[in-house]
Design a protein that fits this description.
Oligomer: single chain
Number of domains: 2
Protein name: Glutamine synthetase
Shape: globular
Structural class: alpha+beta
Subcellular location: Cytoplasm
InterPro entries: Gln_synt_N, Gln_synt_N_sf, Gln_synth/guanido_kin_cat_dom, Gln_synth_cat_dom, Gln_synth_gly_rich_site, Gln_synth_N_conserv_site, Glutamine_Synthetase
Radius of gyration: 21 Å
Largest sheet: 8 strands, mixed
CATH architecture of the largest domain: 2-Layer Sandwich
CATH topology of the largest domain: Creatine Kinase, Chain A, domain 2
Order of helices and strands: EEEEEEHEEHEEHHHEEHEH
Catalytic activity: L-glutamate + NH4(+) + ATP = L-glutamine + ADP + phosphate + H(+)
Subunit structure: Homooctamer and homotetramer.
Number of helices: 7
Distance between the termini: 59 Å
Length: 342
């Protein structure tokens, strides 16, 4: 009987930033379906999710992907539950209010590749700094692009696994890269981001490289790392109304604090009003404005005000589940007409 490796992946309880954890379960005669993945458990006292005297936490499978880097293997994204089956307080996925998957999300995940020998991003000399940022964005050539073999291998693994990556590119600073993920459904989008992150971490291990998710690991005149959240619902996709877009954007203004609280730790170092960001304590929106809190893409306008919005504030280390949940909650406060304008 053939045996399969099921890699159960979950988020721990560390604060302010959760980390990925995983362990392998060996099963026989596995058909590759999510419903065939059994509930499992782990020691929550080792992950800041339980006390030692009552340490069992449950792993509920919520999404499955093939694992192209291992033989007869699958990646199983899970939610953490308490021993009684209730949602654990660290479980951001369970807070998403999008049962009908009306909300679609695309996340732009930025990150730095860190040389474990120097502790600096790839492309940075051991002493001092490389040339100022600018030539590295979407760059080609060994003097500008660093770590391409890692990100290309990661891209292939994601596509083979079934992660809906829609693109990659080198970012503004040396050693900084980005991949983009999209899904029709907030929870599913979060699943794909986390599996994409997991595969990136595991791929970089082989090269002696670490992934730096913090939003401003390099101080000074260098762009930080974000995870811009592109989102839409049926209203945004079909309304054809500039006024509706303005109403939805304006609904975000009273909730700046609530959004920043779940948009990632140390984000104040990135959201300074410089380097294509709005200040962390301010809110603005505008067409094609990368210095605004929310950008209205020019493609949305050219399509007759039918499309999506981009919240540029989330940090690269934010939890896409919590980010999506907060965006959905805010959008639902907007008082927009039900009628669709032709």
């Amino acid at each position: 009987m053939a045996k399969a490796k099921l890699e159960y992946i979950w988020l721990d309880g560390y604060k302010p930033t959760q980390s990925l954890r995983s362990k392998t379960k060996i099963v026989g005669d596995f058909d590759g379906k999510l419903e065939s993945c059994p509930m499992w458990s782990f020691d929550g006292s080792s992950t800041e999710q339980a006390e030692g005297g009552s340490s069992d936490c449950l792993l509920k499978p919520v999404a499955i992907f093939s694992d192209p880097d291992r033989k007869n293997a699958f990646l199983v994204m899970t939610e953490v539950l308490n021993a009684d089956g209730s949602s654990h307080e660290s479980n951001g996925r369970a807070t998403i209010d999008d049962d009908d998957n009306d909300f679609w999300f695309g996340f732009e995940q930025e990150y730095f590749l860190i040389d474990n020998n120097t502790g600096k991003p790839l492309g940075f000399p051991e002493a001092g700094y490389p040339r100022p940022q600018g030539p590295y964005y979407c760059s080609v050539g060994a003097s500008n692009a660093y770590g391409r073999e890692i990100i290309e291998e990661h891209l292939d693994l994601c596509l083979e696994a079934g992660v809906n990556v829609e693109g990659i590119n080198a970012e503004v600073a040396a050693g900084q890269w980005e991949f983009q993920v999209f899904a029709k459904g907030a929870a599913e989008a979060g699943d794909h981001v986390w599996i994409g992150r997991y595969l990136l971490e595991r791929t970089a291990e082989k090269y002696g490289v670490s992934i730096e998710w913090r939003p401003k690991p390099i101080k000074g005149d260098w762009n930080g790392s974000g995870m811009h959240a592109n989102f839409s619902n049926s209203t945004l996709r079909t309304c054809g109304s500039k006024e509706t877009y303005s109403t939805i954007c304006e609904a975000f203004a009273p909730f700046v604090k609530e959004h920043i609280e779940v948009y990632g730790a140390e984000n104040d170092q990135r959201l300074t009003g410089a380097h294509e960001t709005q200040s962390i304590d301010k809110f603005s929106f505008g067409v094609s404005d990368r210095g605004a809190s929310i950008r209205i893409p020019i493609a949305t306008v050219e399509n007759g005000w039918k499309g999506w919005l981009e919240d540029r504030r989330p940090a690269s280390n934010g939890d896409p589940y919590k980010i999506a949940a907060r965006i959905i909650k805010t959008v639902k406060t907007a008082k927009v007409a039900d009628a669709v304008t032709a």
